[in-house]
Each structure stands twice: as C-alpha cells, then as structure tokens.
C-alpha cells in the first residue's frame, strides 16, 4: 500500500489569516481614532461658540440703557430688571421693559359710524335682541374709567378743547354702576340735544373715574361695548392719597384723621381708603392676566385674593369642574375684556416751566400716542394743566378748609407713607410683570413709564427734604 499523499501548505497561505486579523484590527483602531478626532473637533467648536456667545451678550449689555438687568422665566417678555436696594423698608420692584419692544402706540382706527343717526329708542330695541347686544357700539368710542385724582379731568378737558371732532359730556357719568348700558347712550342724545346735534362722525366718550373700581361697569363694557377704548390713569400712591384726602376737605367733607383711615369703615371715609391706591386690585377686573399663578396672586392684598378665590369657586360650580374625575384645570376668575387699554401716569402729563428738551419731547410724544390710540387724524398738543375742585369765594371759609388739609410729607405721616410704599411696590410689580404683557395694553414711552412706576416703592418726600 502506498501512504496517503502529504498535503503541502505554502507559507503564504499559512500566514494569511494572521494578516487578515492585523488588517481588521488596524481598520478598527483607525475608526476609533477618527471618532476621537471628531469628538475633539466638536468640543473645540462648542468652546468657540460658547466664548463667542458670551462676548455678544457682554456687548449687548454694554449697549443697553443704564439699568439693572436680570433673568426672566418668561421668554415672551424681554429683560427683567434686577431689584435695587429697598428704600425706607419697602421691598423692591422687579422692573422689566415693555413686551414686544413697542416704543410707539399703533394707530387704532376709529369705530365705524351709522349715518343718519337712529333714534335712541331704536338703538335700545336693537341692543335688547339676544345676540345683538353690541348694536350701540358705534356711539361709544372711548371711556375714561379711572382712577380718581389721577388726571382724568385733565384728560377730559384736553380732549374736549383740543380736538373739535371729540364729543364728551363735561359731567361724570356713573350710569354703568347701577343702570343699563343703553341708559348711558341716552345721555349722549340728551346732553348734545338729540340726534340732530350729535355729530354722526364724531368720536364720543365719557368720564367716570370710579368705573374701574367696580366689576359691574367692566362687565357691561365687555358685553355691550367690546371695542370701546379704555383710558386709565395712575399716580404715585403717596401723592394720590394726599390729593384725594384734600379734595374731600375742599369740597366740605368732614374727614377723619389720616392715621385712622385704615381702621374705619369705607362708608365713613367718603371713598378715601388705602384700597383706592391698590390699582392692581381693580385692573384685574379687565381679565388681561390669568390670575392663576401663586407668584401673581402673592402680589394682591388679602381681600382681593379672597375675592379671586371666591370667583374661581363660583366658576367651577358653573362649569361642573368639581364633578370631573380628571385633574381640574386652572380657572381664570374674570373673562378677558377685549377692550384696548391706554395706561398712563400723571407724571407723563406734566411739562414744567424751564424743563429740558427731553422732558418736553416726552410730553409731546404722549400727545401723539394718545392721538394714535383714539384714531385721530392729527396729533394732539401737550395736555394743559387742570386743577379740579371748588375754590370758595369766602376767604374765611377757604382758610378754614386749608387748615384741615394735610401735608403728607410731614413726619407725623411717616408710618402711613411706609404702608403706601408697600402697596405701591406690589402694584408696580404686577403692572410691569403681568398687566403690560397683554397685547392690547399700551403705554406712551415704555422706558419712561417703567421708570415712573419704579418710584412707587420710593418715598418722594425724602427727595423734597434734600
């Protein structure tokens, strides 16, 4: 027998698997090194972008107006200004610039008119038809609804005297507090002598400084006059309280001492109380904010908070939310009023003698913005100085009343001023952080307006003493 043939293995074929293994390992190491290089490159690019972004942020901060800057949890609103050191024990106002960077009040066209004017009885019958409640809208273009001693008489006189196409009764009209919406419109027909004397294409409005303090007028405006433009004035709480108190004295009211106002029933104070300077407790009736976050509710005094909670519970019962097994949604206590709002402070109306050019420009700009808001075809001149109130002809009696008036900057009222500053701080914070976020709330010169509201937490009497 022959032995089996011997298989000869060449050296090249013997080393081939080892070479393949080396080749695969080399490819693997190359891919790992490539991935590492990519990661290093990504890290270098990230560091470069971060450094560039920081340089841009620093440059932007340098170019902004001089103010304290902070962070905001709300991306829809621009920079929240950081708090300053408290003044006289009052907490600080969280400042923020006006949302959407609106430096100009846009032109809001006037409401469409009906010509010839119908009889008032016809208008009333239209408004009584369900679903046709806004039939009388064409008769009410604007309303000055607050606040007392916040320049409402100045605004009314200014509009009436400077623009011939504006018709506004010179008396204050409180019809929406106790009467129906068509009763308010009937005043226009009666006041101006019927439809023949009422200019069909005129811009019509009324003044009632206390309408903002009552939920009923706001509800009627929202229901029957949703396009009526609302003008609302503010004033530093310390100056407002002094002016309102002395106004009552001037008109013959026997006022209690200012120190006791906080402890007396409102009826015994003839409307003068701390609640009248809590502007946010009445602006909330407009429903421009949701009033659902705890941070927002914390800015309101206890009576207003209880009122909000009561309103929420009523709405839950109406909507049967308590019977819903699913988590209950947050309920906004007040329906949103679609009415546009022009908010101002009395400091924006003042153009003092020998004032600088910048101050005069602010007042001029205020007239332009008000004209745009009302839809006027030409700008308004700066507002005049107007001081309402009775000036007695009897000098002796006038001297007696002057002696009863207060000077709130006196040292005896230091505690009252401290309380008013606390109210002012919370009011200004809510307006700047929440109310101005509404798209249909406008102010003239937002930066100047913000600076004015910052002063609500600062005692102006300190500056006077210096």
UniProtKB/TrEMBL annotation:
Ranges where the record places region Disordered: 1-24, 65-105, 376-395
Compositional bias ranges of the Polar residues kind: 85-94
Organism: Nitzschia inconspicua
Domain of life of the native organism: Eukaryota
Protein's name according to its UniProt entry: Sulfotransferase domain-containing protein
